[in-house]
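Handout, section 4.2: multi-component inputs.
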Amino acid sequence: MTATQPNVAFIGLGNMGGPMALNLAKAGYPLTVFDVAPEAVKTLADAGAAPAVGIAEAVAKADVVITMLPATEHAETVYLRPGGVIASAKKGALLIDSSTINADAARRIAKAAKDKGFEMLDAPVSGGVAGAQGASLTFIVGGDKKTLEKAAPLLEKMGKNVMHAGDSGAGQVAKICNNMLLGILMIGTSEALNLGVANGLDPKVLSSIIAKSSGRNWALEIYNPMPGVMDNVPSSRGYAGGFGSQLMAKDLGLAQEAAQAAHASTPLGEAAWKLYQKHIGQGNAKLDFSSIFQLIAKDA
Ligand code: NAD
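Output:
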């Protein structure tokens, strides 16, 4: 630890926030942590972080506050309620929300923070739990560029890429554009493989042909959804682990909210959202999002 390292408060210590906070503790940052789940706080306290009993205590001495919460309503509560981050943080603190939330809500929270004199970034991440554990996340950041320059050394302890998307809310918009495209690609890849197999092709042969042709894409080449085509991906282990279908449905829903707010046409994004909702409605919420292949194969 160096004398220049800021005090950090980390709120929301779940699948992502837990390992991200651990990486900051390992890097020597003085860390105070809070989560409504006491067992999550204990894990970090065992690693040397100071446990707080509530948000006000967690942020009281923090130079930087990082939050990693499930969804929009949690972020609104944690930042905006009496006794929340904006009411309780010390003067001059830098606020960073890494949760994936509604872009308009991110702008409202940033405005409320600015009105109280705080600098704030929305900094959702890509890379999943493995990226959080391995400090290889991509941070997709909205807010002032100079504020990001201040935050970058800290974010680089938790991630490999720190990208500036634009003003407040732009990080959230870029993140859900990426995830909407990923959801569409996963469904399209599942359809193509299912069509080939239904017509007698070997899925490994078909995958290798598409990988050298114009239909190539990440879902096919890195994360193939059809069991047996690739080792070490969720489809080869019953779709366990990875990025849950429920989280993909959540991000596709956020993409629809952003599309409606901006009157942007996203017919495939809407179709993808409906298919994922159907899939989780059939009891597959926790299965990796590549398990949408099963829905396509079954419907056929
Ligand atoms: P999670 O549910 O595992 O963790 C969220 C944590 O926030 C929980 O420990 C919960 O107890 C805590 N929490 C909820 N309300 C709180 C409050 N009022 N005060 C303090 N703590 C509170 O979720 P996660 O998987 O860690 O995801 C966090 C965010 O990151 C989500 O917005 C998600 O969409 C996004 N994300 C997740 C992944 C992934 O693969 N899991 C990947 C990229 C982005």
